[in-house]
Amino acid sequence: MLGLLGKSRDNPKLRSPDLRRPHVSTRNRGGGRRQRLPLFLLLATTAFVLVLWHNLSEPSAPAPTSARSRAVPTTSERLREKLSLRGRTRRKGGSSLIPSAQAPFVLPDHLLPVHHDASLMIYSNSPVAPTRPPLNQFLLDPRADLSSPVVAIITATNNPRPVLVDTATTLFGQSLQNFVWVIVNDHTDEPAALEVLEQVAKDPRVVVIQNRGAKGLAAGRNVGLEYVFRQYSPPPKYLVSLDDDDLFEYTALEKACWMLESNPDWDLGGFRYVKWGASNETVLTGVHSNSDNFLVGNFVPNAAVYTSRAVLGSGCRYDEVEFQDGGEDWDFWMCLAEHGYWGGSLLEPLYWYRVNSPKFRSQRWGKTFVDGFGALKRHIQTKHARLEGKFPSKKPARNVPLAPVSWNPPFEQALAHTDKQILFVIPWLWMGGADIGALHMIQLYAAAGYRVTVACTLNQHPESVELRPYVLQYTHDVHILPSFLHVHDFPRYIKHLVRSRGIRQALVSHSQLLYELLPALVEQMPDVEWIDYLHNESYDNWKSAGYPRYSIISQRYLARTITCSYHLKNWLLDNGHLDPDRIGVVKLGIETSKFVPATPAQRSAAKADLLQVEPETLVITVVGRLDPQKRPLLVPRIAEQLLKRIDHDFVIIMIGNGEHREQLLEMIEMLDMQEYVRILGTRSDPSRYYAASDIFLLPSVSEGISIAINEAMAMGLPVVTARAGALPEQLGELDAHGRQVHGPSELGGILVDHELDEINDPVAYAAALESLIVDSALRARLGRNARKLVETGSDWRTTLAGLFDELKLASNLPNFGAGDLRYPHPSAYYATEVLLAESYKLVDMGSQYPAHR
């Protein structure tokens, strides 16, 4: 029943294949067997072919080319490029280093966002689409030991179409490269299909075997399973049954296997998935639907990852008799469930299921659901009746405080390293100024040829991944850790990302976890440089100023600190940072081409089209998240005060969403300000609303360099905001040393000395707005000042280019400052912080002090 293509002539039984060599079919196009060659001639011919293949595939120095002139390679060319890589050096830890010049990471001219929201999904933007990042982000280490694969992928195929090469592309491009792909050739007889198989089999991880028994998908998969269990002892820990025309996202295997490692009582790991082709759908059900998979239908994706332990322990196989006409996957999953093996889902669309024409499957494999879905459902429920009321439902266990932390990865990835790798660690991907700044940094590095890895340590779905579609335009390597790992696995996963990718520099921004992990990470990886990027001190004194305070506490472990303003650099030095030479300043910027001052005619037209107001109506715009830092609840009170002071018609429009939206709506109604304050929600292109505006308002508690204010200033709008944080620097009042350099008439707006209360601040902001509303000349002059302050050097490509220079200056302190008592030691701070959080009354001197009489 089994037959290995090219198997040894002196042993009719299956032998363990040499996985370091390609397996090439010995069948001719007519389906007959070729004559056997003498052994010495066979060996000589094989050696010649391998040498010739090596020479042909050896990469030459690439000619200079730009992203615009680069031709998008065909899928077969990508495969050939993938197989041609040869490592030149060996990195610490054993992985090969492939110079970026030999494996360049070049972004295509046109990129599309990778939306996970079904309403925004771009179904043509598949993992192999030319509108995605390069397919060579992850490279197989040419010296990797592939004899003990982590995953065995089983594909049964009959006369495969050329799209099998696309399937292969998404496998060969995985971030987990240590796998074996067992392709079961199920009676293929078409010459073109045999050529496709031979092309794919050139990869050293591919084994093509023959199914010489009964034809069919279930039979072919069983042939593959038996092969894996006979050839490997122990077998690969994880298994996948992959159709010959489906696709994976490039981190799918890595994330699914790590999810199962983090949930050791799970034996089945699925994902959300995308159906595309003849029909399009984003599927939100899955393994996590638990008993609905028995009672309602099969929601487990075809290519879910399952454990060898489950297959061996249950004895389950694909039913070749009862389900030869379809439903074999459903039956297989229910068999595992019946024996107590189940799991959960990684709630991210990582698998693309190709929907073929209605008659394709019946033409290829036989009749499909011949009696309809109802009959199949009854058949499943009858055969697996023991699952009724006893389904082994699973859900992630709760995180346990002080659970053991292991630093060793559960398996080796077999990834090669390159000399252009960088890691960004951020809390999440909100649609906020700091997060858009991180997006621009990622884009900048990807455009410079870096393979970028992104790790997010918090998850508040869906808001916290609003920017993920746009980050995925520049890198496949985005990891939302809480979506597939328990907290105690975060440390070793971060170490795993660094070590498996060969990362030497990591940029950290706004991640409390990373600051608190730094001593341990440095101990584990003393050769890595950790650099933090700071936006501003906390507006509510969280953590005694927040991330800048963390930076000061952690300075012995940081190779460099970068701030977005001189104000913040000076704050660090005033509050305990020891070395100004280890602090750089790189300001955030904007997409300047989108923000050009509107003419009076354009402003009038925008007011009419977007807001349906008259040209004489003064439009005041607020752009920012509806959260406490931005003080959105103050805006209706400002409108109320302004209404008392002026006779002009005005309207305040608020762009953004957040936690205070409902409270804001209630306050607008309570103050009867519905006519004067409008909440528009998030807008992808705020420039259209700036064009309709006369004044920009942002009553924040504090800001670093505000992206929204930069945009408004570029549009020539006078700004009304607080004299707090870096805002005086941004509006031109202060220089890099905190000295006043411009008077009020030379600024880009009006700075308000607010008191952070709800009574006086609305009055102060209303007074500032009144001065601009009643004095059109002042409004125009401050608007021109604002434009002048940002018209040169404010584009993010220019401002953030300084990151490259700053990271070149990054350098770890000798022995990380050990023995230098000037440097804070973070453990003392974190220990006292936990004590205050958990036992405040037991350690607080004031709570025990005698009451005053």
TrEMBL record:
One of its GO terms (molecular function) is glycosyltransferase activity. Residues 431-593 form the Glycosyltransferase subfamily 4-like N-terminal domain. Residues 1-32 are annotated as: Disordered. It comes from the Eukaryota. Residues 7-21 have a biased composition (Basic and acidic residues). The keyword Membrane applies. Residues 22-32 have a biased composition (Basic residues). The keyword Transmembrane applies. The chain crosses the membrane at residues 37-56. SUPFAM superfamilies: Nucleotide-diphospho-sugar transferases, UDP-Glycosyltransferase/glycogen phosphorylase. Residues 616-788 form the Glycosyl transferase family domain. Residues 153-277 form the Glycosyltransferase 2-like domain. PANTHER family: SULFOQUINOVOSYL TRANSFERASE SQD2. This is Glycosyltransferase family 4 protein. It comes from Rhodotorula toruloides (Yeast). The lineage of its organism: Eukaryota, Fungi, Dikarya, Basidiomycota, Pucciniomycotina. The gene is FGENESH: predicted gene_1.557.
